[in-house]
Amino acid sequence: MNFELFVSLRYLLAKRRQTFISLITFISIAGVGVGVMALIVVLAVMNGFQEDLRTRILGITSHMVIGSFGGTISDYDEVAEKARAAQGVVAATPFIYTQVMISSGKSFSGAVLRGIDPETASSVLNLQKNMKRGNIEDLVRRPPPGQEPEVEVHPGIILGQELANHLGVRQGEWLTIISPVGRVTPVGQVPKSRLFQVVGIFQSGMYEFDNTLAYVDLTTAQQFLGIGDAVTGIEMKLADIYDAQKVAERLRAQLTHPYYVRDWMQMNHSLFSALKLEKVVMFIILTLIILVAAFNIVSSLIMMVMEKTRDIAILKAMGATTARIRKIFIMEGLMIGVSGTILGLFGGFSLCALLKKYKFIELPPEVYYIPTLPVQVNAVDVWLIALSAIFISLLATIYPSRQAAKLDPAEALRYE
Predict the structure, then answer these.
(1) Which of 157, 169, 254, 415 lies at a CB distance of 3.0 to 4.6 Å from 196, suitable for a disulfide?
(2) What is the rounded distance in angstroms from the CA atom of residue 244 to the CA atom of residue 326?
(3) Backbone angles phi, psi at 55, to 5 degrees
(4) Gap between the Cα atoms of 337 and 342, Å rounded
């Protein structure tokens, strides 16, 4: 153990003539610990919210989409094959996207109608996992056994839970879909409508999706909209969602105009940017707790310098350099900061583990889309918090250590 560390430990652990200084030291350690613990818990909860939100969004939407500036893609089979062949792409499926009006006879509502291929959609979307009733395969309706094939079978539709509640329908009931793209008649353009049977209801946990989305079979959507053998775009699932930008660049190099490629980060840019900004703001606000503790460190060290004036003078008279005296008090302040940081890390990890295991903080379901606080500790955040706390503690030692180092031994010992 070197000289500076030995003296720092003796000063920190020795009994004080002034008990008040020891109290401020303990308050400083506790302040740093509380600040570090608060930062770890709050950022872990925000990470949990962000991860849960990302999972729910990507459970209904795809990781990446290929679209056309022309509105539709006619050679979608060829485009889908190119997408599947791209490095990092796991699966691809065509889709149709349009806005419609839905009437149940009891109520009506605007909705987003999505045409999907039941055979390939399950490999890209997690819609089946969110189904409360029915299956995706039920979208393809066939005549009951024994009936004539020419008997009309009304197509099936899958609704979000909130949309079904608003329309007042359940599985097996009937709906009328009205398209804004109508047909031309002698009396003008007339909206096109068709009867659908509700074959399933899904619940993603995201109100925006559950209140607006409706799924039908891809072929049915093509016939209903009158777009022939064309689709709106191609949806893809990636092996690594964080590799989306690189995969998008490779696809853009293969697909020229009029095609474009958008990944999930671009499609949800505003939402995730807002969450990131909120996380940064919370980090800055909660860092103020550590700053308050840093002022306590300054106070503790200044009073310690005043108490140890004679000791400092004797050390300098015995040959201790200004740099060594400065280093003693810097190391003492750092020990306070490191002790508080370790205490805060232990408290933060313990509280996060309790929240994750027992989930004793329940959230009102009418306000939030999840029942309890989600917790996800990020190693990068932990390192950033710990280093920030130690750095702030280091800054707090600069002024007291300089004052101790400037002490004149002759002046200090004159009245001793």
Answers:
(1) 157
(2) 51
(3) -65, -40
(4) 9
What end-to-end distance do the CA atoms of the chain give, in Å?
Answer: 31
**CA angle 261-262-267, nearest 5°?**
165
Cα-only R_g, the chain:
33
Nearest to 35 by CA among 280, 293, 279: 293
The one-letter amino acid at 391? F
The angle subtended at Cα 361 by Cα 355 and Cα 362, nearest 5°, is 130
Chain centroid to CA 323: how far?
47
Q: pLDDT tens, 326-385? A: 998 999 899 999 999 999 999 999 999 999 988 888 887 666 777 788 999 999 999 999
Closest CA to 28 of 293, 397, 289: 293
Q: Are strands 188-202 and 89-103 parallel, antiparallel or unpaired?
A: unpaired
Nearest partner of 176 among 192, 199, 152, judged by Cα:
192
- In this structure, what token pair is assigned to residue 20? 């008040």
CB atoms within 10 A of CB 60: 20
Backbone φ, ψ for residue 66 (5° rounding):
-105, 125
Q: Residues in the chain with pLDDT < 70?
A: 1, 14-20, 141-153, 182-190, 365-367, 412, 414-416
Q: What is the pTM (predicted TM-score) of this model?
A: 0.81
Pairing mode of beta strands 174-185, 156-160 = unpaired
For residue 234, count other CB atoms closer than 10 A to its CB: 29
Tens of pLDDT along 200-225?
999 988 888 999 999 999 999 998 88
Q: What is the rounded distance in angstroms from the CA atom of residue 98 to the CA atom of residue 179?
A: 9
Q: What is the C-alpha separation between 16 and 26, in angstroms, rounded?
A: 13
The residue ranges of DSSP E strands in 25-162, in sequence order, are: 64-68, 89-103, 108-116, 131-133, 156-160
φ/ψ of 278, rounded to 5, equals -65, -40
Distance, CA of 282 to CA of 305 (rounded, Å):
35
Is-contact 273 258, C-beta < 8 A? no
For 40, 284, 341, the CA distances from 398, given in Å and listed in that order, are 27, 22, 19
Distance CA(362)–CA(373), nearest Å, equals: 7
* Residue 272, both tokens: 């995730």
Residue in 234, 221, 223, 219 with CA at minimum distance from that of residue 95? 234
Strands 156-160 and 188-202: parallel
